[in-house]
Amino acid sequence: MNTRVLRRACRAEWTKLRTEPGAWWLLLGVVAVTVAVGAAASGTARTVADPARTALAGVTVGQAVVAVLAVLGVGGEYSTGMIQLSLVAVPARATVLAAKAAVLSALVAVSGGVAVLGSLLAGHLLLPGAPALTDGSSLRAAVGSVLYLVLVALLALGVAFAIRDGGAASGAVLALLYLFPLLAHVVTDPWLQRQLARLGPMPAGLAVQATTDLRHLPIGPWPGLGVLALWAAAALAVGEALLRRRDA
């Protein structure tokens, strides 16, 4: 991949995204929703086994906004036909996908970092006995939550390129994220519940937020985030493959 072409493609993607009014509202929404839900969870909790995870509860809602943000650019380009111009300017499909992924990841990392920091600060103020923000396990939960949001964005980006329709892609990503936790509540077999928690992108990925009782988790914090990374990589691979096979 030509790095010079990639830099130019990234500048073009940045221009397209920053001139999209909805994108900035969605980025603000990630922060607002994540902090608000996390603060509410911290403020209403009576007994808390894992203060950091409780403070970061808003990530489960903020991820939906991240998914919509990721789908917005791709779905909008397909609906207006601008994707044709993008591919004429940058014929290499992998470069187009990489540029979108790089710009999206940077923006989500910044907004996610603000959201996670705000959630932990709120939790530190509202939760009795909350650990310090510099505590090793809390720091891992914070960094892991930001990475989680970035990986959700990349997962949604790959799905958007595969499906091409913004509404359908958003629905597919949200269904994929929330389906495994819902199924885990429906099934009664403990072994099956554990497997759903180990394989689902959302339950496995959010294991990175756990700071207590790690030995009883279905999957460890970093391995769980690795499962989400595999889902995101698979979605991007499918999206790129279909982009190569189709004209746009």
TrEMBL record:
The chain crosses the membrane at residues 23-43, 55-75, 106-127, 139-161, 168-187, 222-243. It comes from the Bacteria. Keywords: Membrane, Transmembrane, Transmembrane helix. This is ABC-2 family transporter protein. It comes from Streptacidiphilus jiangxiensis.
